[in-house]
Amino acid sequence: MTHSALLVMDVQKAITDRVPGLASDYTPRLARAVSAARSAGMPVVYVVIGFRPGHPETKSSPAFSALPEGAFTDSDPGAAIHPDVAPRPGESIVTKKRVSAFTGSDLDLVLRGAAIDHLILTGLATSGVVLSTLRQAADLDYRLTVLADGCGDADPEVHQVLTEKVFPRQADVTTVDAWISDLT
């Protein structure tokens, strides 16, 4: 029997505010997916990027070492999950230290502990956390679904290539509305 979880990844204020061209309907659409998962009794797992003050975890990372002091720490308001999709008490929030939701986090332990074997992926950016997580999750033998319009990227062409040509090799790719229809 398949046990699924909806992953909402990197949908943090500092990220949603920085993705140019992110439609104003993105977070409300993602909120519909979150609501549908909850209604179906499916766990919603939030994945966020987060660092300690002083960013000791980023010193060896070319990608993250350039972050401004204080970015994505507990005191950074931009590190908060977007209020449209905010977690409810008791929902898991997993903090990662690199691009993939699995790297530097306890995500696999959280999922395996709940007997989850199917992940529904959403998040920002398609070419970042979604791609990296999809690849690692496939190697960890999770069944995968990507909600294409539950993801977004600064480059719409890259988003399109990934969701239409790359992701279908390892995941089912659908839309939020089609996925919600299949849940009911």
Question: Main traits of this protein?
Answer:
184 residues; alpha/beta; 6 helices; 20% strand
Give a short overview.
GO terms for molecular function: hydrolase activity. The chain has 184 residues and is of the alpha/beta class.
Polypeptide structure, described:
- This protein is α/β, with parallel strands linked by helices and 184 residues long.
- Helix content is 32%, strand content 20%.
- It has a 6-stranded parallel beta sheet with strand order 3-2-1-4-5-6, with helices on both faces.
- The chain has helices at residues 13-16, 26-39, 107-113, 126-139, 156-166, 176-183; strands at residues 4-9, 44-49, 93-96, 118-124, 143-152, 172-174.
> In the CATH scheme, what's the topology name?
Rossmann fold
Number of domains: 1
Q: How is the biggest beta sheet arranged?
A: 6 strands, parallel
Low-confidence stretches: none
Counting DSSP H or I runs of 4 or more residues, the number of helices is 6
How much of the sequence is in beta strands?
Answer: 15-25%
Helix and strand element order? EHHEEHEHEHEH
The value of Rg in angstroms is: 15 Å
Strand order of the largest sheet: 3-2-1-4-5-6
User: What is the global morphology?
Assistant: globular
Give average pLDDT, whole number: 94
- Which class do the helix and strand fractions yield? alpha/beta
Domain Isochorismatase-like: 4-177
Pfam families: Isochorismatase
Protein name: Hydrolase
InterPro entries: Isochorismatase-like_dom, Isochorismatase-like_hydrls, Isochorismatase-like_sf
